[in-house]
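U., I forgot to send this yesterday:
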Amino acid sequence: MKKLYVKYIFLFMLFALPLYSKGQKYNFTPIDKEFDSIASKLCRMDFENARVKIETKDLDKLYKIAENKRNKQLKARALYWKARTIQMNASAQQCIPLLEQAKKLCSINYDYDMACINYQLAGNYERYGRYLEAYNLLKSTIPVFQKYEDHYFLGNVYLLFVQLYLDINDPENAKSPLMLAGKEYEKVKFPLNRIYFFQAYFAEGEKKLQLYKKSVESGKKDWGMTFQALTNISMLFLEKNQIDSAAIYDNHALSILEKNAYGNLIFTTLYNINHIKVLYAQKKYSEALTLLHEQEKITEMLKGEQFLTEIYEMLWKVSDKLGKKDEAYKYLEKYMNEYKARETEIRNQDLPKAKAREAIARSNDRINLLEKDAELNRTLMYVMILSIIILILVAVSVFVYLYQRYKIRKIENRELRNSLQQESLIYSINRQNFERDIKQKDCEISSSTLLLANKNEVLQQISDITKRYSEQNLIPTEYVKQINSVIGDSLKNDDEWSRFKLHFDSVHPGFFVKLKEISAELTENDLRLCAYVRIGIRAKQIAGMLSVSPDSVNSNRYRLRKKLGLQHGESLDDFIRKI
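Result:
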């Protein structure tokens, strides 16, 4: 379905009451026998989609009865039926005053009358671009039609919501009411041709074509929607360059039009434009031009309508194909002017549509919030009632139970206090023993570490003395090499580090694992340095243990700070002791 014709869809579905139920209930509250008899006949004709056959004399008679009876409610109904009858051939500006007058006359006691008037008025407001007013009127009709179980009218209301959302460029919110419309139609077994038609709007490719075909197959007496579906199918085939198939559906649409609404300006113009496109595709340019000139005669009547742009576009293209360059240029200018005017009109409508979208969104949010509040209040009320009942049922038993447990609790509490005091004392003793053991083990580790540092210092001194004697030629060089080899092996002995690490880990479990979690870049030497810092070994002693200079130890501490992510001013020793 082309977006160009979205605003005309409601003409095919909006103002029809149930078309398929011969025994549809007359929901208007009876007031006057003669008036209701005529109105009931009009309602049946409306149900049978035969509004074009309604005679003016019947409408005049309704109004005359209302005047004679001096009954405002009857007059409101007479105006309502007049607006419904002229709807297909009248503009929104003509229908709105009739319906607004009917609404003023309608008593609030006649809620079904008011809902019908509001529904009809909402459709005209939507045509006229008063989207928020249309939305609010439609909202007001739903509880009334639900009350009277008028499922078809509810379906139509939801479909008008779909149309409204599409018109304000909000297709996402149109999907939910479309689903609700289908459910309402299914409740009374009404054909779903209108549902299929709108579902096609959201479909693409072959799926769109199949949905339009389903709409045609299930349309029955709903000739307006069937006509639109046929023209859309014809255009889809034309887009695929399947001209013969497009012509078949075009002829089918013509037969529907001739049978039901031939001469209606909107329907006839819509068909003629599509038919001209088929003729153009068939290269029947002369026939297309003749039909276009006929349409050109009513351009004044089409002022402000969306059809004019396409009429001038086709006049330009057809004239060009027939070699009429001057006419083609003239119509090209008209097409461009009309196109610019339509573009300007569309841009001018963007702001009201955006405001309507925002206002409707706020209204929906407000309604959702109120519904949630109401649901929460109901839940709270149920909880309160249930709580009161439970309290009443258990109050006596709880009181007796508490009284019986009172003395038992006193005994239990006294025993519990004694037990807690004993456990606290035991815990305190165990903690003191544990802390004493830790300190003792720390002392042992420090002592063994210092002994190792002294050993390394002695070995380094021996190495230095040997080196000095060797330089004075007092000791053979090969003796020096052997001594330095033994000293080097002793200084680099990993067994001592492994034993230290095992002992340290038993006193400070998880220390090395936590360091690795803080920084995976830490080397074995980094871990060793951290362990020495943890037990309080000074830098000079660490240098002796690692057989390096104190400056090297300070450099290693600096690199270690970077790996641990310490900031300037943070103490490395304090950080390690907290691990």
